[in-house]
Amino acid sequence: MAKATRVESEKSLNFWKLLFRAWFYFRTGYGLYLAFLIGFASNIVVLYKLGVADNTYLAPIFPHLTVFGIVALIVAAPVAIFSGLYHMKRTGAFAADAAVQTESNPYVYRAVPGKEREVFVPLMILTAKALVKVMEQLKTLTPEEKRQFEDVLEKADVLLKGQAIGLDSQRDR
User: Fold this and answer.
1) DSSP letter string over 109-172?
2) Are residues 162 and 110 in contact, defined by beta-carbon separation less than 8 angstroms?
3) Sign of the C-alpha dihedral, residues 92, 96, 98, 102?
4) What are the residue ranges spanned by the domains of the chain?
5) What is the pTM of this model?
6) 103 Cβ contact partners less than 8 Å away, ≥ 6 residues apart
7) Which of 153, 155, 163, 25 is nearest to 107 (CA)?
8) Cα separation, 32 vs 34, whole angstroms
């Protein structure tokens, strides 16, 4: 009976995991692609109808919505590309966005489950311990260096336990 309950519990967890993944993919696909295309198309239609169709100067240049849409796309694409490039390279907005994303990501201050927690961090700990032994045998390890190794190894142990390291204010988020 306990086995059946466990199986039902695993199915329930898989259902919720699948549901939240589908929700994430839906938001990404809708927000990045579908809403963008719908928004672009609706802006073109509205701009054409309100600004071009009844305008005595522009109507002869753009006799059909198709012509206006093609010209708008030809003009808008390079403007959008250069605006995006400017946003990434020349404004503080992208740097601020990246800083917020970094601070809110729990894996910036924790070891990522999987290969990092199971292989890379333990391998680094073993390497550091071996290096300390070699340096002690060669009598080249200063007390300050030994303390630094111990401090870093303590932090690595905290990471292996799944806890966060870093600033206290960022650790609590």
Assistant:
1) SSPPTTHIIIIIHHHHHHHHHHHHHHHHHTT---HHHHHHHHHHHHHHHHHHTT---S-HHHHT
2) yes
3) positive
4) 2-90, 111-171
5) 0.55
6) 170, 173
7) 163
8) 6
For 159, the token pair is 């990471």
CA distance 33 to 16: 25
pLDDT at 78 over 90: yes
154-172 mean pLDDT: 76
Rounded-to-10 torsion of CA 7, 13, 15, 19: 180
Cα dihedral sign, 102-108-113-115: positive
51's CB contacts (< 8 A; 6+ apart) are 58
